[in-house]
Design goal:
This protein is of the alpha+beta class. The chain has two domains: about 1-35, no CATH class; about 45-85. The chain has two helices and four strands, in the order ββββαα. The chain has helices at about 45-65, 75-85; strands at about 1-5, 5-15, 20-30, 35. The strands form two sheets. The chain has a two-stranded antiparallel sheet. A hairpin with an 8-residue loop joins β2 (about 5-15) and β3 (about 20-30). The chain is elongated. The mean pLDDT is about 80.
Amino acid sequence: MVIQKPGRITLTYTPQDGTPATEVEVFNFQNSGGVTLAMYNTDESITGFAHSCFQFALQKVRERNKFFFENRFVVVRRVIHCICQQRIRF
């Protein structure tokens, strides 16, 4: 979304069960506008991504008898968080 003038960008989550909504301020454009965007991932998509990454890593371990894991993406931290909360199981 292109922002033409100063103003607040907020993100609101409204649960379907009627519990109170949660709103957070993303950014406050104070002097001029800019650009903003939103992104989401479902638990199923995170699970699929994590499963595919681990399967690929295991395949490489079998091929090379070596294992290197490098964390470059913020989403990987979220996946690890979900695994630690046992929301994702392998």
